[in-house]
Specification:
mainly alpha; 95 residues
């Protein structure tokens, strides 16, 4: 969710009227500090998810993908073997 300039301006004007000019800087600092801590928590949570979920899943799927790679080459070869041979003089394409 991104906040545009117009939305930010409306929030600041409302906050100015609700809090007053003397308390607005104090609450703005508190809000900035809170957002900074939330950002830190979010990045740590992302790192934990990557370390404990994404990387182990990749470690499990990588050998399976490597084992399946030769099979895909064999499938292509089998598909070409199954194609009917063209007879000499047979026209290609269409009916």
């Amino acid at each position: 969710m991104k906040i545009g300039f117009a939305e930010l301006l409306v929030i600041l004007v409302v906050a100015f009227f609700v809090l007053g000019p003397e308390r607005l800087p104090v609450y703005a600092r508190k809000a900035g500090s809170l957002l900074n801590r939330l950002k830190g928590y979010s990045s740590r949570l992302t790192e934990e998810i990557n370390r404990n979920i994404v990387e182990p899943v990749e470690d499990v799927t990588r050998p399976l993908q490597q084992a399946a790679d030769p099979l895909s080459g064999m499938k292509k070869t089998l598909d070409e073997v199954k194609k009917p041979l063209k007879k000499p003089g047979q026209m290609t394409g269409g009916k």
